[in-house]
Specification:
Helix content: 10-25%
Structural class: alpha+beta
Largest sheet: 5 strands, antiparallel
Radius of gyration: 27 Å
Number of domains: 2
CATH architecture of the largest domain: Sandwich
Order of helices and strands: EEEEHHHEEEEHEEEEEE
Number of helices: 4
């Protein structure tokens, strides 16, 4: 960009050929137009973009879950971005374009609270019945922890519960997602302390077939 002293016609504003003129803080300037570049992403970049989009689309339906489960991980980034980093690193598998989710590696919460002891899940009519057994010392200090539940399967919209039961209950139920018979559901359990905003690591309870 060049600066020039006004002649008898003064400075000019606008475009003449490939020259642009204007004024900034009372200083007249001229510059050439930027060259247009036809950017074509490489195959590797397209693959990375597709993998990123796949991970984002997977997380969108469970955004409320990871927003709670990853709130302690959001120091330099949002809870969703922290969860996205985890999914990209450990959960998305396969090669472009046949990506897949490793559900057993998915963590819906990360934190320092004690996790569930002996968690289990069973299919009962149209509900998923979760149970766990915590010792007396755990229940004394953490019995009022709220329960975080998730059930998700390939091709089905997930169901989840946040704070509808507490650790002291030893059990909680979750609606079965609306999915075709034979769908495999993957289930998860974690705890939340509403007073300190702490969470536990999530536990992959297991899979059930509808």
């Amino acid at each position: 960009m060049g600066r020039f002293i006004k002649g008898i016609l003064g400075g000019f504003s606008g475009k003449v050929g490939n020259i642009v003129g204007g004024s900034w803080r009372g200083i007249s300037y001229m510059r050439s137009l930027s060259e247009r570049r036809n950017y074509v992403p490489s195959e590797k970049q397209l693959m990375q973009q597709a993998r990123f989009a796949y991970a984002v689309s997977f997380l969108q339906p469970i955004h409320p879950v990871v927003r709670v489960g990853y709130r302690n991980q959001a120091n330099q980034k949002s809870a969703l971005n922290a969860a996205l980093a985890h999914v990209l690193k450990k959960v998305v598998e396969g090669d472009y374009p046949a990506y897949r989710i490793n559900y057993a590696s998915l963590e819906i919460a990360k934190g320092l609270l004690p996790g569930p002891q002996s968690p289990a899940v069973q299919l009962q009519d149209l509900s998923l019945a979760f149970t766990w057994r915590d010792g007396a010392s755990i229940l004394k200090d953490y019995g009022d922890n709220q329960v975080l539940l998730l059930a998700i399967g390939e091709g089905s919209y997930p169901t989840y519960s946040i704070g509808e039961a507490v650790r002291n209950d030893g059990q909680a139920t979750l609606d079965v997602p609306d999915a075709p018979a034979g769908t495999v559901l993957h289930t998860y359990l974690a705890f939340i302390d509403v007073n300190s905003n702490s969470v536990s690591n999530s536990y992959y309870v297991g899979e059930l077939s509808l």
